[in-house]
Fold these 2 entries.
Entry 1:
Amino acid sequence: MSRAVTLAWVVFLFTLPLWMDNLYFLHVLIMAGIFIVAAMSLNLLLGYTGQLSLGHVAFFGIGAYVSSLCSLGFEIHVFDVPVGLAPKPVWLSMIVAVVFAGLCGWMIGKISFKVRGAYFVIVSVSFAEVTRLVALNWLELTQGPMALNNIPFLKLWLPGIGDIDVLGKMPNYYLVLVVAVVTYVIIRRLVHSRAGRAMIALRENEPLATSVGIDVTRFLVLATVVSAALAGLAGAVYAQYVRIVDPDVFLFIYTVTMVIMVVTGGKGTLAGPIVGGLIFGILPELLRGFEVQPEIQWVVYGVLMILIVYFLPEGIVPAVRDGWRRVGGRSGAPPAQPAPATPAGATPATAEASP
Amino acid sequence: MDQLLQHALNAMILGGTYALLGIGLTLIFGIMRVVNFTHGELYAFGAYMMYMWVMLIGANFVVSIALAVALGVLLGAGIEILLLRRLRGADIDTTMLVMIGAWIAMQNTEQLVWSGVAKSIDSPFPSAPLVMGGVSVSWTRLFVFAVAVMLIAGTWVLIQKTRLGKAMRATFQDREAAALMGVRIDRVHTATFAIGSGLAAAAGALLGPVFVVYPTIGDLASLKAFAIVILGGLGSIPGATIGGFILAFMEELGAGYVSSGYRDAMGFLLIIVILLVKPTGLFARKERIG
């Protein structure tokens, strides 16, 4: 995608609520946007370092809970000593949530990157399950299944506009859009930096990366921290939008949704999670029009995931890009897309899987 | 003291079925290098087949267990031939994604077929428990334990004493060398996945009558199997056996002395502690990195 196309997209997305007044569709886009942010954060790990975080929803849920608890305030008793927190402003709560989620990512990375691969997958799954059980059982703090209600919404002050209540569809749409763009820029900069090249190097060939002096574990932990913090940000945005958080935010199926988004769109590409996120964020709503049972929807997801691994192992974005190049679509536009985003042979490991 | 004994006894009995789950998963990982996310669904499948034979068709209890295991073996062989055979040589993440897809599809198919309502399975054993001193145990649980121990022993004999077992061990050590010696790798893989699936189905068929059966029981079963396998070292059968019992003890003690809400969190805490202290598991012969 050249810079002009990107710009056209941004303009299109920023003006969308001005000419589209279907509130329900706006809601669908907001939820898709939140999931896209989460999927982009997952892509940093899965696509660029090759580590599958199958408990990614834990960071999302932690972001949602920490932000909600800070903005609501809480009081718990540790050995009968009351420990409390007065309600804090929402923007501060969201920052705390991001930092906390990042810390959890650091912890998980430190533990599991001693041995990686399958171990990291299982540790991340386990971590998500533990956080879900804590949210369900620590009634004093989280209200358990009764959920946290009436979570305050974000209040912002913008130069030239003044105070804004981020309440309702339109302000939230813009909030999600801004967060998504910021996330995209952070990940893009990281991936194109020295750290990003180190991550890709270790995904492609870890022994070689080590031999040229790349501290593999350090970069893996760094990627996990950034990824977890961004997922936490998505969770915090989610909490202040829906304004109710219950332990179901930790459901495994949300992690699966993120994984499917990344794999379908194209792991290891910047645009992949966005394309996948739009498809799987909007598809369920279309299916709902046909009154499809949710179980059938999930069966379709599962089968789709298998088919994509077999027939489109690199995902949609690389496939489309290759097709574009083949028909000579590059001749007109300058080659604005730099190679580092998808170095030659990105995800070669999956490429060889095609039958 | 009696309370502690009671917990220990419960753990022994639960541990047998956990060990079955763990052995199945560790076999599949060790020989095929596949992180099998459908394992829990095979467990659920076994439990639902048990429900079907006992409650809907009215077959004999013991015969039903055998049928459930046989169907689990068949389903496992089908999954291997249909989904995994063409991915031989693919990297571990690719097969993992396929298995996750299969897991989601299977679980929701179960939900469609059996509905979300929990089902209970009647057991033919007397409901009055066996009381010994201060501890008591139900006859159903004793039976479950006996069958689990028999199945563990049977698997052990299969792997150590039969020709197939020898081929499996050879494949485990070095796939290429085994193929050069005339071992048919495709057959070994299908057999491994079928046996592993059969063991998971057996665990489901055995625990189905002890607890209740509902579509998402497979999730926790998968996660517990992973915990057991990490505990014992990926690919180690004795490790998985002992790991199954250790996890059961942790859960019983956690539920008894901490809080029953955190019972299922014990396995995961165990994983984290093990990875901190001895990342390769307690019984792995050499370091295995997925």
Entry 2:
Amino acid sequence: MPTYRPGPVSLIIAALVALFLLMPLLAVIPVSLTPSRMLAMPSGELSLRHYRALVEDPRWLQSILLSIRIGVVSSAFSTVLALCFSLGVWMFQPRFTAALVGFVLLPMVVPPVVSAITLYFLLTSMSGFSTFFGYDTWLGVAMAHSVMTVPFATVLMLVSLSQLDRRIDLAARGLGATVWERATRIIMPNIKFGIITAALLSFVLSWEEIGVTLFITSVNAITLPRLMWMGLRDNIDPAIAALSVILIIITVLVLAVRSFVARQRGA
Amino acid sequence: MRSYLSDRMGAALLMAPLLLFLVLAYAWPFLGVVKWSFTLPTPGLGQYEALLTDDLVQSVFIRTLRIAAVVTVVSVAAAYAITVVWVRGTPAQRLIAEFCILVPFWISVLTRAFGWVALLSNRGLINTWLQAIGFISEPLALVRNEFGVIVGMTHFLIPFAVFPLASAMRSLDDRVLLAARGLGSSRMRTFWTVFVPMTRSGIIGAAMIVFVFSLGFFVTPAILGGGRSVMIAELIYLRIFQSPDWGLGAAISVVLVLFVGALMALLFRYVRPKQLI
């Protein structure tokens, strides 16, 4: 059966859009190899000094470790909260489900800058009570990141639960399984993939979060994006180009592996 | 009866932690921000009055709306072009289109903004090349102005516009298009009079998402605008951290939320949420 394919005009316009999408990602490669101390195109010789700076300057390593720590803690926290909430919604289908889910999704739809000022208010208020949780502390940042990532984790869980066959849960229930057994031995093994994806997405979102982080940190809790931001605003540091190249390569590799795995599963 | 009660208890117990967390860490501090807008520096509606009279605030609001409108039109059109290929192309074309959409989507907003700085700045790729071939003698001002902001935001938002468009195009029946072609309609005419109108819900959804996102955009305008093309989100940041005027920053936030809320309500009158994914 013939299908309706895009014609030559569509293909040309789409190719231009594709080029536009890839262009800035490719542009960082030559800049990262410049021997100059400032942002410039390399003229003639190439240098790896900016890659070396990433390893040698302890600030980069410190902020990478901090970002990983915050990412792991906030992702674990928001995955557990989102999992419990979604299990509650799916197993018991309580009244007002739509309103409750809508409330949980708020941090995802409210403009990020409004969430940022809200979390700034929260953490500066908490600074009065505790030195661990307040403004410019890593736990404070992890908590703020959890607020921002929990809606995404919830959406992923609800989507994977919606594909689950209710009859297996009804069967378990009919055979006398308790709520705990149904959740941990029947439902969770079947949405394993969704849980892992939610945890990964929460980690990635926290790893690259900058809009909120900018409002709630100043000198102590410098995450990797925060450090990049500082290098971008004042005097553009080509080490950021080197770092960007590395991040882009990792992203491409992960996507390639993912699409390969998806293809294997499909085949 | 016992099971009914324990069901209610179970649901409450499972759902409570997240709801409690968000009430304490999100809803309550948001009310605090609302309170700021009415009480700082002096109690009353002074900040909201300032919003209506302050020239700077007004010009930032207008600039934000103008940039958001341009970005919306350009990104939805560009996203439409690449989505057609992603959804309807040959397998090889689809794979390439998917790569070009998903790679930028997963890369952080900072890296992407930096990529544009590397391309557009005075000593960046484009200016270096144009000067090398003798096309221009002075570097073009491509960044630290509205042009740079629009380019960077369009780049960021195209992938977000792709998903609702793809969902609309996938649900479209091939036979209608083949029928139009079979009845002698040209490619162009089939596209404009059959294909585009049938994906209307996707276009509305994509436009709304892009517009709402651009209103609250912070990182890209701050980097590519270089402080000269300030949008609402950056103005809030400046009011909180540079010229401490928390009340005004809070009042702008409240207005922004109300505006976005009204737009979303409008959106859901036309499009069901499921069509957006």
